[in-house]
Amino acid sequence: MDRLSALLTHFGVRAGTFFSGDYCGVTAFDEPCGHIHLLQSGQVQIRLADNSEHLISEPTLIFFPRPYHHRLSAIETDFTQLVCATLNFNGGVNNPLSAALPDYLLLPLKDMPMLGTTLEWLFSEASADECGRDATMDRLFELLVIQLLRYLLATHNMASGMMAGLADPRLSRALNQMHENPQQAWTVADLATTANMSRASFAAHFHAVLGQPPADYLMSWRISLAQKRLRDGKPIALIADEVGYESPSALARAFRRKTGTSPRDWLRSQTQTA
After folding, report:
1. What is this structure's pTM?
2. Are residues 131 and 167 in the same domain?
3. Which letter does DSSP use for residue 181 in this model?
């Protein structure tokens, strides 16, 4: 499986289209989800949680991979046309994929020609009134996110973190092995061999790019998978075997080291806040 598909198999994205057409007014976004806004024409003012403001006056993709307070505003004479959707990555708001992305991205559409066909189809659906329109637009938004991730990898847009590691030809091979086979007892030497690097060079390069040692990254990945499976209702004994721990108690110890709480208490807190 390729570097991106391995991630999306576990932590895919679901989109929900909620607006398309002429936009005028002020809207604040505080929902516990990500958002994607496509400025098709006209202009829009965006105010971000850090109080910075941006006037966007060319077709632009405005991407929030996880909850982030922002406000859009436009007046009638701006002739603003927007298409917007909510985004939810599987595994919750702190899943590894969305957590590896910046708080927001403002990307002119002209800089991403690889998205052209999908954008053309999405805008066409938005302006039509065919049966299945909403479902089609939801799927197109999901495809757009995958293509955006592909673009970020191809252009090395991320300076550090998991996405930067996946964009690195050597590190991506090791990361992909961990993502696809978390149940294996990976050592630094095993991963270095996969990356075709010496053990010392691999460990240093991995830490420099991803900001943590390989063993810490592997534990974080395993716990993220365990959290997703807990939310899906799987028993902890089965989860432990799937994510590389010899027993439920070993998983529980690693889980507590990573999250500060037991799997049972963590799942209860998720249920209470859902």
Report:
1. 0.90
2. no
3. -
The two three-digit tokens of residue 137, written as one number:
């637009």
Q: How many domains does the chain fold into?
A: 2
Residue finishing a domain among 134, 154, 174: 154
* Per-residue confidence (pLDDT) for residue 243, from 0 to 100: 95
pLDDT digits (tens, 9 = 90+) for 152-202: 999 888 888 999 999 999 999 999 999 999 999 999 999 999 999 999 999
Say yes or no: 121 and 178 in one domain. Answer: no
Strands laid side by side in the 80-89 sheet: 13-23, 80-89, 34-41, 60-64, 105-108
**DSSP-assigned letter for residue 273:** H
Tell me the C-alpha to C-alpha distance, in Å, between residue 48 and each of 80, 90, 106, 150, 152: 19, 25, 11, 25, 22
Q: Are 157 and 100 in contact (CB under 8 A)?
A: no
- Residue 21, CA atoms < 13 Å, CB-side half-sphere: 6
- Does residue 109 share a domain with residue 184? no
Query: Cα–Cα distance between 266 and 102 in angstroms, integer?
Result: 26
With beta carbons less than 8 A apart as the criterion, state whether 112 and 34 touch: no
Residue range 26-54, pLDDT digits in tens: 999 999 999 999 999 999 999 999 999 99
Domain span holding position 25: 3-154
Q: Please report, as a single letter, which amino acid is at residue 178.
A: M
